[in-house]
Amino acid sequence: MTKPTVLVLGGLGFIGRNFIPYLVENELASEIRVVDKVLLVTTALNPRQKEAFSKVEVWQRDLVDRRKSCFFRYSLKMLIYSVIKLSIENSFTRTDGGSFDYVFNLAAETKYSQIEKVYEERVYTLSVRNAEEAARRNVKAYVEVSTAEIYQSDKALAEIDLYDKNPSKEDDKAKPWTMLNLVILRPTIVYGPGATMGLTPRIVCGRIYKLLDEEMKVLWSKDLKINTVHVYDVVRALWHVATWYQNNGKAGKGPYIYNLADLGNTDQERINKHLSNIFGIKTGFHGAITSNLAQLNLDSAVEDSNDKHMGPWTTFIRDSKKIKNTPLTPYVDKELLCNNPLSVDGTKITVETGFQYEVPEITDEKLVEMIEDFKVIGWWPKENV
Fold first, then answer.
1. Number of folded domains that form the chain
2. CA atoms of 284 and 240, how far apart (whole Å)
3. Which of 16, 100, 299, 327 could tie 11 with a disulfide, CB 3.0–4.6 Å?
4. So which domain of life are we looking at (predicted)?
5. ∠ at Cα 364 (373, 284), nearest 5°?
6. d(CA 252, CA 42)
7. Tell me, what's the pLDDT at 164?
8. In a domain, 338, yes or no
9. pLDDT score at 249
10. Predicted confidence (pLDDT) at residue 156 exceeds the cutoff of 50
11. Residues 35-86: pLDDT tens digits?
12. What's phi and psi for 267, nearest 5 deg?
């Protein structure tokens, strides 16, 4: 049986750097092309990832215009659009002139605190243009990685349970795509080797509080949900839903939408316990009164928090004398200090497709594995943890 051909958009990002080794090591595809806005030579990879990427085709292409095109004349805007459209068409065209069987879109913007225009261009427009090309070519499966952080309560803020015990499901409607064989995955907080966001700022803060010899206290209570999923399960789910879609007669019946959340129902208490175990620090919570006061003046609270943490971390990195540059930071965007629970039901994918999570919950070992990987690629000083 001929193995499928695969196109991975945004394949040099965090999830992509773990997805490509999974594809290569398990010999799942006959051809793999990675397209990303960054260069492979400037991407920090561990030895396993370097080996995998040496066996695939990597293109440097920007699939969305990142300039402030609102200031351009209409004629120039159309020229830019034509260039981007051609770049997308070329990316989707195999060397023999054919099309790829499976396309995975991992290219959307994931940073917090961006203006609405940035998200419109780098999430919505990027996804629409690539989806249109995939539909035109009738690819066998187009898998879009979104996020479970899009869910909102229909109730007013004062009426919702901030420590929501009723996890969000996939009931939100998605606009149907004509002739697009679409599966959308909505992962919760993804953690694992190479993650620079998500849980990583908390891990960095844990190391800082060990340096400071102080208790690490976070806003809100221990029950605030911060559901998680390991990146190894995310990459397995990517391939699983693509093959499930093709092999079970799902073409033309989508889109199918699945949350990804492990079975641990992670909350702040669980995360704090792991950081306490790993770094030997005391952890706690500021509670409702202090947290609500911080929320009233969130900009000031964010500034105070980042001022406290950035100095010690910078000193720690500088004193190591071997870390030239690191994307790891304790810096926290203000969205992450709000009382927003992330409580998500990730079981639909197991019931409907047979997928099984291999990392059912966060453990000390999985977080230490992240730190050890940071050391290998030169992002964290080599020390015993």
1. 1
2. 39
3. 16
4. Eukaryota
5. 115
6. 39
7. 46
8. no
9. 86
10. no
11. 999 999 999 999 999 999 999 999 998 776 655 445 455 555 555 666 777 8
12. -130, 180
Look at residue 23 and tell me if it is in a domain: yes
Domain that holds residue 32: 5-192+228-264+343-360
The amino acid occupying position 295 is: Q
> Which residue reads 């699945």 in tokens?
258
Note whether 331 and 201 are within 8 A (CB).
Answer: yes
Residue 370, both tokens: 């992240």
Exposed (0-12), middle (13-18) or buried (19+): which is 162, by Cβ within 10 Å? middle
User: Locate tokens 């999570």: which residue?
Assistant: 357
When pLDDT is averaged across residues 227-240 and rounded to a whole number, the result is: 98
Residue 292 placed within a domain: no
CATH number of the CATH domain containing 170: 3.40.50.720
The model's pLDDT over 91-144, given as tens digits with 9 standing for 90+, comes to 889 999 999 999 999 986 555 555 666 555 666 677 778 888 888 999 999 999
286-322 burial, b if ≥16 CB within 10 A, otherwise e?
A: eeeeebeebeeeeeebbeebbeebeebbeebbeeeee
pLDDT category, 235, cuts 50, 70, 90?
A: very high
Residue 20 neighbours by CB under 8 Å, 6+ apart: 8, 11, 32, 34, 49, 52, 53, 56
Judged by phi (left if over 0) then psi (alpha if -120 to 50, else beta), residue 280 lies in: left
Cis peptide before 47 (omega within 30 of 0): no
Residue 194: count other Cβ atoms within 10 Å of its Cβ. Answer: 23
